[in-house]
Specification:
The chain is an alpha+beta fold. It has two domains: 208 residues, Ribosomal Protein S5, domain 2 (2-Layer Sandwich); 88 residues, Pdz3 Domain (Roll). A six-stranded mixed beta sheet has the order 6-1-5-16-19-20. Strands 7, 8, 9, 10, 11 and 14 form a six-stranded antiparallel beta sheet that branches. Strand 17 and strand 18 form a beta hairpin. Helix 4 runs parallel beside helix 6. The longest helix is centred in the middle third of the chain and has 26 residues. It is globular and about 70 Å long. It starts with a helix and ends in an 8-residue tail after the last helix.
Length: 340
């Protein structure tokens, strides 16, 4: 064999081996980067992202964008290196995203639960901001429990056996006087429907001696109309604040976004407290790609957000839902909102 050809083959072997390593070997890292954004004032698949049925909805302009972080798992060595070199992606140990003591299905189910909880909290925070009255509200109904087919999520319970119940303590006090097998009559209000009454025969539960209704209840602001969030396959709780803003914008005159593209991220509690989130620098990059000029930042994330601030994007600091609404109205009036 020609010596020159032999030298070439010897030189190519490690290059080819390295190429195989790049394309075949999986690395124990997950890539985090900018994910898709969704305008909560707009539509997705022909439906309003935030749909309100049974109440007057006011016209809006501009955008209120929720932001997400994209995750890529199962990376090869070559893919990981390419993503890292792009400067837009962050590589983190896989165990931080997918703990080894939980299956991927368990993690995805937990993320979905967090997202659904954020939707409920967003509704309660918005209704509280709008001064809707509190009520004993059905949060969940056990599928095979005594109340299945009789009460629904979102019902407001007004009385039990003719005794008014204005809050959770009063409701529980009445139930504690019952026993399994008793039949009680519950007066309720249902969204987009007339008030009603239903008789429920109480069941047994090993955790309590009194009768069991098979529902979860909480004190929450209640409105007679329905709010639906039509956004699936987005996990985690960080959309809460922006969802609340969209509800408020649609139910009030005026325009929170002021024809601007506003983005943000933040958890929300039922009483309107805005909490910190992860991946804010990636979310800011996604917002910038979507044309946002304002980003609503949870106060606890301000230091990290400032480290990645982009030209043309104002970072507005928020601690509560009221802060966020006030800041947007201040911007629309040409004023100076709190900044990071």
């Amino acid at each position: 064999m020609n010596r020159r050809i032999l030298t070439l083959i010897v030189a190519l072997v490690p290059i080819m081996a390295f190429g195989v390593l790049l394309s075949v070997v999986r690395v124990p890292f997950v890539s985090l980067g900018p994910g898709p954004t969704f305008d909560t004032l707009g539509q997705i698949d022909g439906k309003d992202v935030v749909a309100i049925e049974g109440a007057e909805v006011y016209p809006t302009s501009g955008q209120l964008n929720m932001t997400t972080v994209a995750q890529r798992d199962g990376l090869t060595l070559g893919q990981a290196l390419t993503l890292w070199m792009s400067g837009r992606e962050q590589l983190v140990p896989r165990d931080l995203v997918y703990p080894p003591d939980k299956s991927r299905e368990e993690i995805e189910q937990a993320n979905t639960r967090d997202f659904r909880q954020s939707e409920d909290s967003a509704e309660y925070a918005a209704l509280s901001y709008l001064d809707y009255p509190m009520a004993v509200t059905v949060d969940s109904v056990e599928e095979s429990g005594p109340s299945a087919g009789k009460l629904r999520d979102g019902d407001a319970i007004d009385a039990v056996d003719g005794r008014p119940v204005a809050n959770l303590d009063e409701f529980q006090a009445v139930l504690q006087e019952t026993k399994p097998g008793d039949t009680i009559v519950i007066d309720y209000r249902r969204k987009n429907a007339p008030p009603g009454a239903v008789a429920v025969t109480l069941g047994e539960n090993p955790d309590r001696e009194h009768g069991y209704l098979g529902i979860g209840v909480l004190d929450a602001p209640w409105a007679p109309f329905e709010i639906t969030f039509n956004l699936a396959n987005v996990g985690g709780p960080s959309a809460g604040m922006v969802f609340s803003l969209a509800v408020i914008d649609k139910l009030t005159e005026g325009d929170l976004a002021g024809s601007r593209v506003v983005a943000g991220s933040g958890t929300i509690t039922g009483d309107g407290q805005v909490g910190s989130i992860g991946g804010i620098t990636h979310k800011m990059a996604a917002a910038a790609d979507a044309g946002a000029t304002v980003f609503l930042v949870p106060a606890e994330n301000c230091v990290e957000a400032k480290s990645a601030q982009r030209d043309g994007m104002e970072l507005v600091r928020v601690e509560t839902l009221d802060d966020a609404v006030t800041a947007l109205n201040t911007l629309s009036a040409g004023g100076e909102p709190p900044r990071c």
